[in-house]
Amino acid sequence: MSDRSDPRPLSALPSPAARAAAFVAILLGGLAGALIGYSLVRVQCSGQCAVGRGLGVFVGAAVAGIGMSVVAVLVLRALGEWRDLEDRRSKSGQS
Question: I need a labelling partner for 89 at 20 to 30 A (CA). Which of 7, 21, 36, 38 fits?
Fold first, then answer.
């Protein structure tokens, strides 16, 4: 049973601000990976390298975006556990 005095409904979802911050972090990680992939191919290639640069951008963005999404999920789960611990501590009367 839930306590009616609690203004926040019981949910495993992180706050919308935390989810938005995670989304922006994933996008920025993907952008950084794309720039790194492009730069690596540009430094190593001479002549016609349009396909190589495109692949560098794609692979760099994909790898960095996937890695950043793993980090974001772990952070969101940690925030959820921290909030759960704080709720339990406040309900038991501890500081």
Answer: 21
Cα separation, 64 vs 94, whole angstroms: 41
> Considering the entire predicted model, what is its pTM?
0.78
Structure tokens at 54: 């495109």
User: 34: exposed, middle or buried (C-beta count within 10 Å: 0-12, 13-18, 19+)?
Assistant: buried
Residuewise pLDDT in 10s, the chain (95 residues): 455 555 666 666 788 899 999 999 999 999 999 999 999 999 999 889 999 999 999 999 999 999 999 999 999 998 888 887 777 788 777 65
At 5, phi and psi to the nearest 5? Answer: -80, -10
